[in-house]
Amino acid sequence: MPEGDAVLRTARRLHAALAGAPITTWDLRWPSVATSDQRGAVTVEVVARGKHLLHRLDRGITLHTHLRMDGSWRVRAPGPPVRDPWARAVVGAPGAVAVGRRLGLVELVRTSDEHRVVGHLGPDLLDPDFDADEALARLRSTPQRPLGETLLDQRVMAGLGTMWASEALHAAALGPLTTVADADARDRLGALVGDARTILVAAVDGPGRSTYRVRARAGAPPPAEHRVYGKAGQPCPRCGATVRSVEVGQAPTARTLQWCPRCQV
Ligand SMILES: [Zn+2]
User: Which of 121, 132, 196, 258 has the CB geometry, 3.0–4.6 Å to 158, for a possible disulfide?
Assistant: First the structure.
């Protein structure tokens, strides 16, 4: 699943391709918005909020999309009509066409009503004005909840998925099953939030990130930057114990993290 860093890179790519130009192609292949036509509107900006993409038009309309598990946006040169069966949104300007593939959500909202679709999100770890105090307050609101599950909850902090949550917990030497209250009693919550932010910010411009999932599917090892994610069965780079997988959260939304049971406590 694309995490906050990948979504932010996608927003930047879409913004660079479309902002400031009139829309010449508008084709939403999504039942609830299939009849909408925003040709002639100008793209004001494309921004990321957590894992959500907000494409704002000068008509006061926002195209809201979410990549969910397998979605992506690709930008290509203008050309013949898009015949890709996985295309769920096609937005074109004179110089570029953006194709949203396998999107998990496509909807239109008034720009002034964006809070209805992203207002539930906790502080965005990639926001330059990230509010760490607010993130800590939201963490502490569920003291008995395990850290792994809590970090993945976008209402607490926005941006982390299983990959960077695993890495943040390892960096902070905290276990995914350790409760918020336990970590707080040891005065470690602030460090965890700081590590999560540092890791996600670094990932935005880090090497090899965008190709990670492709390489993972091909059976290649993850980039060296990963210390525990995708490394179950291998030695922990910090203490040498065997990295394990653990399920966090409740079915059907349970997710799998990797961690070192010896040095993450
Ligand atoms: Zn270890």
Answer: 121
CATH class of the domain defined by 132-259: mainly alpha
Are domains 4-118 and 132-259 of this chain identical in fold? no
CA of 89 to the centre of ligand 1 (A): 44
Determine the Cα angle at 16 with ends 15 and 18, to 5°.
65
User: Which CATH code of 3.20.190.10, 3.40.50.1100, 2.60.40.1120, 3.90.1170.50 fits the domain covering 4-118?
Assistant: 3.20.190.10
* CA of residue 13 to ligand 1 center, whole Å: 37
51 is catalytic: yes
Q: Encode pLDDT of 36-82 as tens digits.
A: 999 999 999 999 999 999 999 999 999 999 999 999 999 999 999 99
**For residues 18 and 96, what is the distance between their CA atoms, to the nearest angstrom?**
7
Question: What is the model's pLDDT at position 247?
Answer: 96
Strand partners, 98: 75, 91
Q: Could you confirm whether 3 is annotated as catalytic?
A: yes
Q: Write down the number of H helices and E strands in the chain.
A: 8, 10
